[in-house]
Amino acid sequence: MPKKKPSHSYCLGIESTADDFGAAVVSFDGKVLSNANDAYLPKEGGIHPREAARHHAEVSEKVLAEAFETASVKPREISLVAFSQGPGLGPCLRTGATAARALASYLAVPLVGVNHCVGHIEIGKLATGAVDPVTLYVSGGNTIVSAFEAGKYRIFGETLDIAMGNCLDVFARAVGLQQRKGAPFGAVVEELARKGKKFVSLPYTVKGMDLSFSGLHTAAVNAFESNKGTVEDICYSLQEVAFSMLTEVTERALAHTQKPEVLLTGGVAANKKLQSMLKVVADEHGARFCVVPLKLAADNGAMIAWAGILAYNSGISTPIEKSFVNVKWRLEEVYAPWVEAK
Ligand code: ATP
Ligand code: FE2
Questions:
Q1: Is residue 338 included in any domain, yes or no?
Q2: Which residue of 31, 119, 134, 336 lies most exposed, with the fewest beta carbons within 10 A?
């Protein structure tokens, strides 16, 4: 097994849970030196896991080379390899894990498997200086309100069906909007929503602390097809309803935990409307509102590298024989000793 002890240290992070293949070099003192990425863009429809995995395998060499080059760090200077171990799409995760295992063995350095959700939270904390936030993590595959309590990031509320980002993506596809590289569907919906004038009534579904978006998605598509409003009106109404649901649950978690910060992270964190709604709630509770910077909001290797560094520094590593991916790895299953250690 690899045993090189990190002295002056850099971590290589590999992210491959879904449509992005990312590789980044992050220093142990928290500097993101590079964050290379290549996204798989399906010709039509949603992500096909095996097609995405094939894309990842094809671009991995190029993305890894870019990560080293931009960071001006040689592979031999890496002292830790971190990879997204789950949750995510099996074939995609396995492609990243294979690259990570090969590199860790070749370089004779330790390997650490990172929970993707932890990655989104930790990079948000690093970038904003948040220490103990209530986090709203919203992306294409996840919608989670969480806060740290007794050793773990506890889930206070989550979606019961599809994720917030997925709701926006499937709606956009159903009404014929076009995705552009660099402009995900969520951003297209956001742009149109700004021009919406009329509020169209759509179902608001919060059950206890959990949320449901699938009925909302169907109702929004139906409203569009039955001409209840323009596409701009429906985008506006969809955002109003969905983001109010997210804000309600986040506010209740905040009122309950009395945490000092609200952190918004994940791909949907790029949305200015959602940011403004959460900021109002944070302000009302005297909490600092923190939002992950745009370049670190979507899936990226830097968040995996940084969460890997935190875990490794508190004694966690993943032997190769235990580095199989876990497609359903839940946030609250992760023991996170580094949070209290700080
Ligand atoms: P995860 O595995 O974390 O669920 P993911 O592959 O969905 O990952 P992210 O890159 O974190 O990855 O999030 C992508 C989602 O963010 C997509 O659903 C996309 O439409 C959404 N998104 C991106 N920009 C915006 C925006 N400005 N407004 C709303 N949603 C956005
Ligand atoms: Fe993600």
A1: no
A2: 31
- Is 250 domain-assigned? yes
Q: What is the model's pLDDT at position 41? A: 84
Ligand 2: centre distance to CA 292 (Å): 13
Query: CB 320: neighbour CB atoms within 10 A?
Result: 16
Quote the CA–CA distance of 259 and 95 in Å, as a whole number.
38
pLDDT score, position 183: 84
Residues 254/282, Cβ–Cβ less than 8 Å: yes
- Shared-domain flag, residues 172 and 279: yes
Q: What integer pLDDT is reported at residue 2 of this predicted model?
A: 55
CATH number at residue 174: 3.30.420.40
- Per-residue tokens: 280: 């109002």
Residues 277 and 182 both lie in one domain: yes
Give yes or no for residue 139 CB within 6 A of ligand 1.
yes
Distance 186 CA to ligand 1 centre (A): 7
Same domain, 236 and 141: yes
Q: How far apart are the first and last CA of the chain?
A: 29
pLDDT at 181: 67
pTM over 0.90? The answer is yes
Nearest to 146 by CA among 171, 117, 173: 117
Does 43 lie in the same domain as 33? Answer: yes
Cα(296) to centroid(ligand 1), Å: 11
Residue of 123, 139, 178 best suited for mutating to test ligand 1, as the one with most atoms within 8 Å of CB: 139
* Minimal-distance CA residue to ligand 1 atom 19: 186
Total number of domains in the chain: 2
Q: Does residue 192 sit in the same domain as residue 317?
A: no
Range of the domain at 60: 10-121+297-331
Q: Ligand 1 atom 29: the closest Cα is on which residue?
A: 186
φ and ψ at residue 153, rounded to 5 degrees: -80, 110
Residues of the chain falling short of pLDDT 50: 5-6
Whether residue 340 lies inside any domain: the answer is: no
Closest ligand 1 atom to 172 CA: 20
141 lines ligand 1 (CB under 6 A): yes
pLDDT for res 43: 77
Which residues, including other chains, have CB under 8 Å from residue 44's CB and lie 6 or more apart? Answer: none
Ligand 1 centroid to residue 107 C-alpha, Å: 33
